[in-house]
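Write out structure tokens for Cell division protein FtsB.
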Amino acid sequence: MSMTRILFLVLGLLALGLFVRLWVGSGSYSDIQNLEQKIDQQNAANDEQAELKRKLQSDVVSLSKGDASVEEHARSELGMIRQGETFYQVILKSDPTPTPGLTPPVKDGPHVE
């Protein structure tokens, strides 16, 4: 064999090895696609968390501005009533389970002043 044939054979094997690594090794096309999918999933999760954070910040701002939002929150989320008010709970036939958190008031129970 001549020296040029040996050189071409070595270069061909080296090129083949590099192409195989490009197709199946670390940093290959499939590896990059998997990483891009993970990035897309993480971006979607980040967007959900950002929306939740925005809602919570909005709640904090509204709760810090006055008593009306605190009272509204206490009524809707905690089922609290004012002293002297009568609590009525309407259960529709289409909704057999009562709303959680809304229970009939207990004598001397929690009150929103």
